Amino acid sequence: MIKNILLVGVGGQGTILTSKIISKGFVENGYDVKMAEIHGMSQRGGTVTTQIRYGEKVYSPVIEKGTADIIIAFEKTEALRFLDYLKKDGILVINDYEIKPFTVGIGMSEYPDNVLEKYKSSVDNVHFINANKIANDIGNSKVMNIVLLGKLVKMLQLDDIDWKKIISETVPKKAIELNIKAFEVGYESN
């Protein structure tokens, strides 16, 4: 059985690093894994998506619309762009955090109101987490992505993988302790 994970965010949020950690964890535990990443002007605050497919044998990294088992949105409006990728009984995890695009700043567009309420009314299995606040509370907002990783691992019950080891092998040495803490706090979050 193949599982599909879609991570969506804004450039600079650590979406790709998180995907690499997830993929490495799956590979080290015997899964066939395919990952694709899309950088939409990511250095300028544009959308970044990564698609991860894992299972016994995976032939393509591409997640088709309506087939994502889980979507992790690193920014709350990014999920709106990709909601049609979520399967009917899929899980949506949203970081209750907003990054207003440049076009909002110059008055060309408006940031949508009541976004979280829209998700509640359109998705049966939706979960919210303020990963940015959690990351700030433990010392650095840059580990927001690892807080979300912890939440993902718990949601998908992926406890048979040594995530702390993989995080330790992937992040810079000086950041290992903080990233492990971020993972643990994300895992324990409700």
Automatic annotation (TrEMBL):
Organism domain of life: Bacteria
Enzyme class: oxidoreductase
MF (Gene Ontology): indolepyruvate ferredoxin oxidoreductase activity
Keywords: Oxidoreductase
EC numbers: 1.2.7.8
Entries under Pfam families matching the protein: POR
Domain Pyruvate/ketoisovalerate oxidoreductase catalytic, residue spans: 11-188
PANTHER family linked: INDOLEPYRUVATE OXIDOREDUCTASE SUBUNIT IORB
Family annotation (NCBIfam families): PRK06853.1-5
Protein name from the UniProt record: Indolepyruvate ferredoxin oxidoreductase beta subunit
Organism: Sedimentibacter acidaminivorans
Upper taxonomic lineage: Bacteria, Bacillati, Bacillota, Tissierellia, Sedimentibacter
